[in-house]
Specification:
binds adenosine-5'-triphosphate, Rossmann fold, 2 domains, binds magnesium ion, 9 helices, single chain, alpha+beta, about 35% strand, five-stranded antiparallel sheet, OB fold (Dihydrolipoamide Acetyltransferase, E2P), six-stranded mixed sheet, elongated, about 375 residues
Length: about 375
């Protein structure tokens, strides 16, 4: 277990930033997920932590010790990639034993360690097979075993489930999380899949354009996104974000709607919006009560049935559709009028220019 600190760590390729100056502390035993769209700098960040990529500037510390210029092999970390990178001519057993042999460990100790990790990952029955004859899930388990067998202080994973099909991904996700809990190794896990990030992370670091957008627990990132990018990126569908104009306790929304702003937000809106009162109102699909007396009116654009619930697509006007989660029995004819309220404790407001979330002191 190790605490990993990044201090103003940055990476440039030529003139362009792959990672802008980044400050981050990963606590000992924590499972951190780096999440963001393709090209945002996740892999580069992970490679700098591992030492496979040199920083352009800044410092990386493991347990307070500066390792910025230390060779990867001297950092006591293990790295798992999306592609299994197993040796095809070696059996699964020899693949797993390889890093221990390279350290010059005794045969007995290697045998013991391999048996232990194979038991943990339930791959005892494939130890004699060559990687080519294994399923994708088992190949990735062998790759994980090879990383775990060293008992590294930190465990770095770059989209390790990316090459697996949906069914394997889900079960492996749970297995990796469980392994982490059992081993308690500090883990940094890269993915562009927000569902995976929500499910696995103790904390999620959301990145975009070479910069951290928000670093917080999954619930914080989901409930109180720091800006419009995070609000859109997390959740499926993302947060409903509707532009309106604020005046005297009311946001005027498209389709001639008036939204009465909860009391505790009024002062913040009055003092932090541009002079013309423009604001973006945000709410998750489940942050809504659909009922006849709801203050916002809309017309039904589509119903999606999901079995356990219905997702209503409601049109405020020709240009603005919101996604609303309603009971499984709730269905409307197309173009029916639907009224709804936004739950007062689940509404969020964003500045239209800075795109940052407004804070009312409670969130
Ligand atoms: N060796 C390199 N030389 C030049 N540019 C690079 C190099 N490696 C990465 N980049 C650039 O740095 C940026 C960040 O890349 P990085 O691989 O870290 O993104 P990522 O978030 O891991 O994306 P993905 O989800 O596609 O894996 C990208 O614009 C990429 O093109
Ligand atoms: Mg990558």
């Amino acid at each position: 277990m190790a605490t990993i600190e990044l201090k103003q760590v940055e990476k440039k390729f030529g003139d362009s930033y792959a990672v802008k100056p980044l400050d981050m502390t990963i606590n000992s035993g924590e499972f951190i997920v780096l999440l963001g769209p393709s090209g945002c700098g996740k892999t580069t960040t992970l490679r700098m932590i591992s030492g496979l990529e040199a920083v352009t500037s800044g410092n990386i510390l493991f347990d307070g010790k500066d390792v910025t210029w230390l060779h990867p092999s001297a950092r006591d970390i293990a790295f798992v990639f999306q592609f299994f990178a197993l040796y095809s001519h070696l059996s699964a057993r020899d693949n797993i034993a390889f890093p221990l042999q390279a350290q010059g460990m005794s045969r007995d100790e290697i045998k013991k360690r391999v048996a232990e990790v194979a038991n943990m990952l339930k791959i005892e029955h494939v130890l004699n097979a060559r990687p080519g004859s294994l399923s994708g899930g088992d190949q990735q388990r062998v790759a994980l075993a090879r990383a775990l067998v060293r008992r590294p202080a930190a465990f770095l994973m770059d989209e390790p489930l990316g090459a697996l099909d949906a069914e394997f991904r889900e079960s492996m996700r749970a297995e990796i999380k469980r392994l982490h809990i059992d081993q308690n190794a500090t883990s940094v896990y890269v993915t562009h899949d927000q569902v995976e990030a929500m499910a696995m992370g103790d904390r999620i670091v959301v990145m975009s354009n070479a910069e951290v957008q928000q670093a917080a627990t999954p619930m914080e990132v989901y409930n109180s996104p720091a800006n419009l990018f995070v609000a859109r990126f997390i959740g499926s569908p993302g947060m409903n974000l509707i532009g309106g104009k604020y005046a005297d306790g009311i946001v005027h929304l498209p389709g001639d709607n008036q939204y009465f702003v909860p009391e505790n937000w009024r002062g913040v809106l009055a003092s932090s919006l541009p002079g013309d009162g423009r604001v973006v109102v945000g709410f998750r699909p489940e942050a809504v009560d659909v009922h006849e007396d709801g203050q916002i009116h809309s017309s039904t654009f589509a119903n999606d049935l999901h079995g356990g619930y219905t997702m209503l697509h409601l049109q405020l006007d020709g240009d603005h559709i919101v996604h609303v989660r309603a009971g499984r029995e709730m269905r409307y004819q197309l173009d029916d009028t639907v009224h709804f309220d936004i739950k007062p404790d689940m509404v969020r407001f964003f500045h239209p220019e800075t795109e940052k979330a407004l804070q009312n002191g409670k969130v």
